[in-house]
């Protein structure tokens, strides 16, 4: 992991985490259910170091996208605390100030852009609403479009429907970078792109991270992409963190049965490594009424009596590698 260059907004130095999440919770009430709620994020804690890429993985419905929105306060957490570079969000640093330093790129590149606004105005909108004169905001939009590989003279006046999927996603990345953020949350940014365009966008993200000293939270269901891009990996299951550690350790020595099942589900080009039996069976439990104890015990072949009643804590099993499993 390459440490970022000195930033005048850096308060605590390179050793202080850029973002700390402590016991974040977000439950969505379900109408007509007698007061029950979907436990989308249910006590998630982790840190994001300056200059790193933290990959977040897990199957659909595990709470990854909800977590992304919590980090930017697009939705307000029910409980827990966020600390950005030493300042508690809401107390030490206002939400508006947080959003000047943290931006997000969503999965759906088309719906993320205003169809009635030219690309240059969409990119310039962030700096403009933060108080910059319109002419300066448009100058920043021109520079940022060029950085993401879009000719500002050609693409700036165009509307979203005139761009391909990859071009729209580049415009979304430019829009996120126009405000000069220190951290960018990438929520499935390449999942809707074909593989050739996906590779181009991923290379662009790595280049921008190096050039602009960025920190990424990269959310994806593609384990190969996460392995190539991330420094550390956070594995979620049903609203909780089950494993967290360096990318090399997670992929070479996965400790949680769910992480091992995820990695085993990747298709292999080697005929000797192909499997016929599914690495994981059954459907995820209902997030409205998750099982007690370890939430994975209903699908885990190693589950014991203790797993059914006692919630495992996230503990360090080797340097920097944490797992929430009674058997580790």
Short characterization:
This protein is of the alpha/beta class and 328 residues long.
The CATH first-level class comes to: Alpha Beta
Shape: globular
Low-confidence regions? none
Rounded to the nearest angstrom, the distance between the terminal CA atoms is 27 Å
Q: How many domains make up the 3D coordinates? A: 1
CATH topology: Rossmann fold
The sequence of SSEs as H and E is EEEHEEHEHHHHEHEHEEHHEE
Q: How helix-rich are the residues, as a percent range?
A: 25-40%
**If you average the pLDDT, what whole number results?**
91
The largest sheet, given as strand count, sense and whether it forms a barrel, is: 8 strands, mixed
Q: Tell me the Rg in angstroms.
A: 21 Å
Tell me the number of helical segments per DSSP (H or I, 4 or more residues long): 10
Task: Report the structural category.
Answer: alpha/beta
Which keywords apply here?
eight-stranded mixed beta sheet, alpha/beta, 10 helices, four-stranded antiparallel beta sheet, 328 residues, 12 strands, 21% strand, Rossmann fold
Write up what this structure looks like.
The protein has helices at 64-71, 95-101, 119-129, 134-147, 152-155, 165-177, 195-212, 223-229, 247-252, 257-264, and strands at 19-29, 37-48, 53-57, 79-84, 87-88, 102-105, 183-187, 215-219, 232-237, 240-246, 315-318, 321-323. With 328 residues, it is α/β, with parallel strands linked by helices. The protein has a single domain (19-266, 278-323), classed as Rossmann fold. The chain has an 8-stranded mixed beta sheet with strand order 6-7-8-3-9-10-12-11, with helices on both faces. The two termini are 27 Å apart.
């Amino acid at each position: 992991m390459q440490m970022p260059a000195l930033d005048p907004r850096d308060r605590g130095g390179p050793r202080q985490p850029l973002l700390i999440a402590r016991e974040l919770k977000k439950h969505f009430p379900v109408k007509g259910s007698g007061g029950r709620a979907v436990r989308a994020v249910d006590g998630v804690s982790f840190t994001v170091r300056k200059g790193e890429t933290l990959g977040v993985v897990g199957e659909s419905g595990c709470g990854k996208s909800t977590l992304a929105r919590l980090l930017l306060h697009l939705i307000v957490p029910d409980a827990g605390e966020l600390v950005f570079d030493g300042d508690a969000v809401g107390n030490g640093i206002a939400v508006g100030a947080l959003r000047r330093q943290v931006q997000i790129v969503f999965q759906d590149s088309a719906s993320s852009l205003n169809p009635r606004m030219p690309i240059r105005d969409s990119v310039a909108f962030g700096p403009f609403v933060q108080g910059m004169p319109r002419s300066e905001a448009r100058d920043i939009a021109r520079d940022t479009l060029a950085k993401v590989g879009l000719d500002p003279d050609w693409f700036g006046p165009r509307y979203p429907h005139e761009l391909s999927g990859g071009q729209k996603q580049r415009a979304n990345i430019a829009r996120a970078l126009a405000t000069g953020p220190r951290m960018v949350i990438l929520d499935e940014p390449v999942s809707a792109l074909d593989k050739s365009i996906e590779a181009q966008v991923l290379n662009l993200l790595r280049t921008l991270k190096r050039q602009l000293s960025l920190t990424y939270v990269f959310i994806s269901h593609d384990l190969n992409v996460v392995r190539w891009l991330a420094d550390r990996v956070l594995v979620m299951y049903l609203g909780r963190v089950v494993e967290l550690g360096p990318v090399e350790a997670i992929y070479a020595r996965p400790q949680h049965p769910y992480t091992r099942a995820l990695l085993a589900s990747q298709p292999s080009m080697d005929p000797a490594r192909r499997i016929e039996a599914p690495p994981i069976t059954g459907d995820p439990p209902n997030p409205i009424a998750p099982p007690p104890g370890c939430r994975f015990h209903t699908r885990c072949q190693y589950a014991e009596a203790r797993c059914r009643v006692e919630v495992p804590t996230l503990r360090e099993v080797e340097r920097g590698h944490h797992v929430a499993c009674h058997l580790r």
